[in-house]
Amino acid sequence: MLKVLSLILGISLFFNAYAEELVIERSYSTTFVKTNKNCTLAKYKKICLGYINFLAGRFENSQLQRFNADIDYEDNLAIIDIPHATQKLSVDFRPVSKINLITIITHVETEDVLGKDNFIETVNFNEETVKMISFKDLFEKPQVASLLCARKLEEKFARNNTELFPLVVASIEVNPSRFLILPDGIEFVFPPNLVEKSNQDSVLTVKAEELIEAGPKLEWFPEFKSRDADSMVDPILGEKE
């Protein structure tokens, strides 16, 4: 089965003691992939490879579009040097069994004719339906949640931020990304030197209880639900009506 998948997706697979490594060769790009052990489990293998292949295909398509935009069709196409880009993916596949959720955080490094870049991709989706879950799906008032998260970001990194920090704050206010869903809140992950001067990823964790004004949906935050239920019990009189 694994061999069939590798042939279909154009992926070469080889293993080490800790994780799985893949090489995806395309016409305009090569993608090198490292995954954690969760991605090698039979239960998640198809989903993980599908997501990896999506990232590789998207990168290949961007290189193809750039090549087509730059090409001069009056030149001799037979001697045109086709640039070949590379992409490195480090995939952290995290099942959250309490809420039938899968979160994936991927560190991406690219190198092409425009130079080098590195960034982080995150995705959250329902394990049963494989439907992607957006920030708006998590709250009754997602715009309020966005603003509250932006303020939390400012509180944590305002003293040691970077030139791009105001843009990151604005992006969270409008359309939050780079977040992972936790049983009791959400976690934003930023690559080094994006929101603060650091050689490591920067992390902002916002608890659901800090976003109560936005109406967190209890189906995604079961630990918050448990605490909320406990708060309704009086230690002497019992459950409150």
Report on the structure:
With 241 residues, the chain is an alpha+beta fold. The protein is built from five helices and eleven strands. It has a six-stranded mixed β-sheet. β5 (101-112) and β6 (115-126) form a beta hairpin. α3 (142-157) runs antiparallel to α4. The longest helix is centred in the N-terminal third of the chain and has 26 residues, at 45-70. The radius of gyration is 22 Å and the shape is globular. The termini are far apart. The model is unreliable at 1-18 and 229-241 (pLDDT under 50).
Quote the average pLDDT: 84
Give me the strand/helix succession: HEEEHEEEHHEEEHEE
- Report the biggest beta sheet as strand number plus sense, adding barrel if it closes: 6 strands, mixed
Instruction: Estimate percent helicity.
Output: 25-40%
Strand arrangement in the largest pleated sheet: 1-2-3-4-5-6
Overall shape: globular
Please tell me how large the radius of gyration is: 22 Å
Tell me the strand percentage band.
25-35%
Distance between the termini: 56 Å
| Count of alpha and pi helical runs | 5
Structural class: alpha+beta
What is the number of beta strands?
A: 11
Oligomer: single chain
Low-confidence stretches: 1-18, 229-241
